[in-house]
Design a protein that fits this description.
Elements lengths: L3 H16 L2 H45 L11 H24 L4 H21 L6 H17 L7 H13 L5 H22 L1
Helix pairs in contact: 1-6, 2-3, 2-4, 2-5, 3-4, 4-5, 4-7, 5-6, 5-7, 6-7
Protein name: Phosphatidic acid phosphatase type 2/haloperoxidase domain-containing protein
Keywords: Membrane, Transmembrane, Transmembrane helix
Organism: Streptomyces qaidamensis
């Protein structure tokens, strides 16, 4: 009976980790902010943003995994993250430039710019130390949601904490790496979002 508890706990950890992947936040957040800014047309802009911040980076990571440039789609090894980062960053930066150039709704452009800033901060840290991208994107997304829709959305903070717990439970990160991810995501994304907006 004692063995069932860790297995069940691990199953929940995997569900939370996979559900809280950075790409899923962007697939949800970009169309939502697009809708908030400009209705159905804004959703279209959000979909474009999601393609460059979620879909293409996922394809890049899967390609690298298939070619054995890194171990898996989560790119667990710190050194592998440095190898994977340029492709992902290129996709996000091209998406940002495209949104600016085509005059997308400012909330969508601000979201993508904020995520570029978070990724750059994480990349700098990654040269020296491994930090949780899951935690950073989750906390950054929550900070932006609270900025746009009001502080009442901070009731979702336990979801962000549970995503961090899942990364620790699965031994992908230490508590320190998750905590720094939380801090970077919230501290960088919200000011950049406000500045661009």
């Amino acid at each position: 009976m004692q063995e069932l508890v860790p297995r069940t706990e691990a199953r929940w950890a995997w569900l939370l980790s996979d559900g809280g992947e950075p790409r899923n936040w962007m697939l949800l957040l970009a169309p939502l902010l697009g809708w908030h800014a400009d209705g159905w047309a804004g959703i279209g802009w959000g979909v474009i943003a999601a393609v460059f911040t979620a879909v293409l980076p996922t394809l890049i990571l899967r390609f690298g995994e298939h070619r054995q440039y890194w171990g898996d789609r989560h790119v667990r090894r710190r050194q592998d993250r440095i190898v994977a980062a340029p492709g992902v960053m290129a996709s996000v930066i091209i998406g940002t430039a495209l949104l600016y150039g085509l005059d997308a709704p400012v909330e969508v452009t601000a979201l993508v710019a904020a995520m570029v800033a978070v990724l750059l901060a994480l990349l700098v840290i990654t040269f020296f130390w491994k930090v949780s991208v899951h935690s950073a994107v989750a906390s950054g997304a929550l900070a932006i949601l609270a900025t746009v829709f009001g502080p009442w959305l901070l009731v979702l903070a336990p979801v962000v904490v549970l995503i961090g717990w899942s990364r620790i439970r699965l031994r992908c990160h230490t508590a320190g790496q998750v905590s720094v991810g939380f801090l970077i995501g919230a501290a960088v994304s919200s000011p950049v979002f406000d500045l661009v907006r």
